[in-house]
Write a structure and sequence with these properties.
alpha+beta, four-stranded antiparallel β-sheet, 23% strand, globular
């Protein structure tokens, strides 16, 4: 009689005149990566980061062209250009990119800089700083964008803002030491700044626009590392709005900031 092999019965191997042997079936399923493979990292992390970097470089290049056209291509004779170049270096813009922006500035298409005054959701005040080579196109695009987010152009909005000089310095001084708030306040008193704002990346000193370069030079003399010196708009009063309005206003601000012809967006949202 031929030998009888094991018989499969309900997941068990039954051996004639022998013990029961457990049988575990093998199951296969498609391999999943849950977003942790290399392509996911490129798509979800590097992609948006590179897009933001390119957008920032585009704005800085436009500011370089404008400064070079108005004051000449020599930064030693053009304080505005020297300041924008300092901002470019702090953002790690390559020298070749800076040179390409400055070089053809005198023969590039003329660009116009202007401010748009906007009333956003719940009457929030917004001022948009625009630089474009086609004012009609940009004005049309921004009007469509505003209508999409429930905002409109309005006169008199700028009166709710005031100009201040802003000197941003590195979070570490020239000796590589962290700039504490106490040290920043002492430097502000010596340099003639009115106020100090601090975040994880830099320390900002506020002053009157007319004293901008003097304060910058004094801060550098005190051992700090200036990154930029600009005149910006600050709201005279900030407003608190309901959460749903806050979300709508934030979406509007992001959409405006992402427009390629917008340099800065100022608002009075808390």
């Amino acid at each position: 009689m031929a030998a009888v092999g094991p018989i499969a019965l309900r997941g068990l191997l039954v051996a004639p005149r022998g013990p029961l042997v457990a049988h575990r079936g093998l199951h296969s399923c498609p391999r999943t990566f849950a977003g942790h493979n290399r392509w996911s990292k490129v798509r979800n992390v590097k992609g948006p980061r590179d897009a933001a970097r390119g957008h920032r470089f585009q704005r800085l290049a436009a500011m370089l062209r404008l400064a070079a056209r108005e004051g000449g291509p020599d930064p030693s004779l053009n304080a505005a250009l020297a300041n924008v170049m300092a901002q470019c270096r702090s953002s790690n813009m390559p020298k070749a990119t800076m040179a390409a922006a400055i070089g053809p500035a005198h023969r590039s298409t003329p660009e116009l800089r202007f401010l748009l005054e906007v009333r956003g959701p719940s009457g929030t005040a917004i001022v948009v700083d625009v630089l474009t080579d086609n004012a009609r196109r940009t004005h049309h695009d921004l009007r469509l964008l505003l209508s999409r987010y429930g905002a409109t152009l309005a006169e008199g909005v700028k009166h709710g803002f005031e100009e201040r000089g802003v000197i941003a310095v590195d979070a570490k001084d020239l000796r590589g030491r962290a700039v504490t708030m106490e040290a920043a306040l002492e430097a502000a008193l010596e340099a003639g700044a009115h106020d100090v704002l601090q975040d994880e990346h830099c320390v900002k000193f506020l002053c009157s626009p007319s004293a901008l370069q003097d304060v910058r030079n004094l801060l550098e003399a005190l051992g700090l590392r200036p990154l930029s010196a600009t005149v910006e708009l600050f709201p005279r009063n900030v407003v608190n709005v309901p959460e749903e309005t806050q979300n709508a206003a934030q979406r509007l601000l992001r959409a405006l900031s992402d427009h390629p012809d917008v340099l800065h967006v100022y608002h009075n949202l808390q």
